[in-house]
Protein backbone atom coordinates (compact mmCIF):
# COMPACT_ATOMS: atom_id res chain seq x y z
CA UNK A 1 0.00 0.00 0.00
CA UNK A 2 1.23 3.47 -0.90
CA UNK A 3 0.11 6.73 0.67
CA UNK A 4 0.78 10.11 -0.88
CA UNK A 5 0.74 13.45 0.94
CA UNK A 6 0.92 16.66 -1.09
CA UNK A 7 2.07 20.05 0.14
CA UNK A 8 3.01 23.46 -1.19
CA UNK A 9 -0.05 24.71 -3.01
CA UNK A 10 -1.59 28.12 -2.58
CA UNK A 11 -2.29 31.44 -4.24
CA UNK A 12 0.22 33.23 -6.45
CA UNK A 13 0.11 36.06 -8.96
CA UNK A 14 0.62 35.39 -12.65
CA UNK A 15 4.31 35.14 -13.44
CA UNK A 16 5.12 33.82 -10.01
CA UNK A 17 6.37 30.44 -8.83
CA UNK A 18 5.22 27.64 -6.58
CA UNK A 19 6.73 24.33 -5.62
CA UNK A 20 4.64 21.25 -4.88
CA UNK A 21 5.91 18.27 -2.94
CA UNK A 22 4.54 14.75 -2.68
CA UNK A 23 5.82 12.53 0.09
CA UNK A 24 5.22 8.84 -0.49
CA UNK A 25 5.10 6.07 2.02
CA UNK A 26 5.40 2.51 0.80
CA UNK A 27 7.58 0.50 -1.51
CA UNK A 28 7.86 -0.50 -5.10
CA UNK A 29 7.18 2.90 -6.62
CA UNK A 30 8.60 3.10 -10.14
CA UNK A 31 6.98 6.25 -11.42
CA UNK A 32 5.52 9.42 -9.96
CA UNK A 33 3.53 12.14 -11.61
CA UNK A 34 1.44 15.24 -11.09
CA UNK A 35 -1.99 15.56 -12.65
CA UNK A 36 -4.41 18.45 -12.42
CA UNK A 37 -8.09 19.14 -12.83
CA UNK A 38 -9.22 22.66 -13.59
CA UNK A 39 -12.82 23.76 -13.01
CA UNK A 40 -15.03 22.40 -15.76
CA UNK A 41 -12.23 20.45 -17.40
CA UNK A 42 -11.02 16.86 -17.42
CA UNK A 43 -8.04 15.76 -15.42
CA UNK A 44 -4.76 15.91 -17.32
CA UNK A 45 -1.26 14.69 -16.73
CA UNK A 46 1.08 17.61 -16.08
CA UNK A 47 4.43 15.89 -15.55
CA UNK A 48 5.76 12.46 -14.78
CA UNK A 49 9.11 10.99 -13.85
CA UNK A 50 9.94 7.34 -14.33
CA UNK A 51 12.72 5.32 -12.69
CA UNK A 52 15.83 5.98 -14.73
CA UNK A 53 15.03 9.65 -14.95
CA UNK A 54 12.77 9.84 -17.98
CA UNK A 55 10.40 12.79 -17.72
CA UNK A 56 7.33 13.74 -19.70
CA UNK A 57 5.42 17.02 -19.65
CA UNK A 58 2.13 18.43 -20.83
CA UNK A 59 2.94 20.66 -23.81
CA UNK A 60 1.55 23.77 -22.16
CA UNK A 61 3.93 23.50 -19.18
CA UNK A 62 7.13 22.57 -21.01
CA UNK A 63 9.90 25.00 -20.16
CA UNK A 64 8.01 26.30 -17.11
CA UNK A 65 7.52 23.24 -14.89
CA UNK A 66 10.15 20.78 -13.69
CA UNK A 67 9.49 17.47 -11.99
CA UNK A 68 12.13 15.81 -9.86
CA UNK A 69 12.35 12.96 -7.42
CA UNK A 70 14.30 12.57 -4.21
CA UNK A 71 14.71 8.82 -3.78
CA UNK A 72 16.27 9.14 -0.32
CA UNK A 73 13.18 10.96 0.97
CA UNK A 74 10.74 9.12 -1.32
CA UNK A 75 9.44 12.49 -2.46
CA UNK A 76 8.53 14.02 -5.80
CA UNK A 77 8.64 17.75 -6.43
CA UNK A 78 7.05 19.93 -9.06
CA UNK A 79 8.67 23.31 -9.51
CA UNK A 80 6.28 25.63 -11.31
CA UNK A 81 7.60 28.89 -12.75
CA UNK A 82 6.01 31.60 -14.88
CA UNK A 83 2.60 30.54 -13.67
CA UNK A 84 -0.46 31.54 -15.66
CA UNK A 85 -4.11 31.83 -14.64
CA UNK A 86 -4.76 28.76 -16.84
CA UNK A 87 -2.60 26.74 -14.43
CA UNK A 88 -5.25 27.18 -11.75
CA UNK A 89 -6.42 23.71 -10.74
CA UNK A 90 -6.38 21.05 -8.10
CA UNK A 91 -3.09 19.22 -8.47
CA UNK A 92 -2.90 15.52 -7.64
CA UNK A 93 0.15 13.44 -6.93
CA UNK A 94 0.10 10.04 -8.61
CA UNK A 95 2.34 7.03 -8.11
CA UNK A 96 2.65 3.78 -9.99
CA UNK A 97 3.92 0.94 -7.89
CA UNK A 98 4.23 -2.81 -7.98
CA UNK A 99 0.99 -2.95 -5.97
CA UNK A 100 -0.92 -0.68 -8.33
CA UNK A 101 -1.62 3.04 -8.93
CA UNK A 102 -2.24 5.46 -6.07
CA UNK A 103 -3.52 9.04 -5.82
CA UNK A 104 -3.02 11.82 -3.34
CA UNK A 105 -5.89 13.89 -1.98
CA UNK A 106 -5.13 16.88 -4.19
CA UNK A 107 -3.94 20.39 -3.45
CA UNK A 108 -5.26 23.69 -4.76
CA UNK A 109 -3.12 25.98 -6.89
CA UNK A 110 -4.64 29.34 -7.78
CA UNK A 111 -2.96 31.82 -10.10
CA UNK A 112 -4.44 35.30 -10.11
CA UNK A 113 -4.20 37.61 -13.11
What can you tell me about this protein's structure?
The protein is mostly beta strands and 113 residues long. Helices cover 0% and strands 60% of the residues. The radius of gyration is 13 Å and the shape is globular. The mean pLDDT is 95.
What topology does this entry show?
Blueprint: E1 3-7, E2 10-13, E3 18-25, E4 29-37, E5 44-50, E6 54-57, E7 65-70, E8 75-80, E9 89-97, E10 100-103, E11 107-112
Parallel strand pairs: 2-11
Antiparallel strand pairs: 1-3, 3-8, 4-5, 4-9, 5-6, 7-8, 9-10, 9-11
User: Span between N and C termini?
Assistant: 40 Å
Overall strand count? 11
Name the overall outline: globular
Helix content: under 10%
Largest beta-sheet characterization? 7 strands, mixed
> Looking at the chains present, what oligomeric state does this protein adopt?
single chain
Radius of gyration: 13 Å
Q: State mean pLDDT (0 to 100 scale).
A: 95
Q: Note poorly predicted spans.
A: none
- SSE topology string: EEEEEEEEEEE
- DSSP helix count? 0
Structural class: mainly beta
Beta-strand level of the residues, as a percent range? Answer: over 45%
In short, what is this structure?
The chain is mostly beta strands and 113 residues long. The protein is built from no helices and eleven strands.
List keywords for this structure.
4-stranded antiparallel β-sheet; 7-stranded mixed β-sheet; mainly beta; 113 residues; single chain; globular; 60% strand
Amino acid sequence: QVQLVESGGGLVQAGGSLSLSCEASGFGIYAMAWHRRAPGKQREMVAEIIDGGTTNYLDSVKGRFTISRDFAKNTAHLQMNSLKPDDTAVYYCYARSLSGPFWGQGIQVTVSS
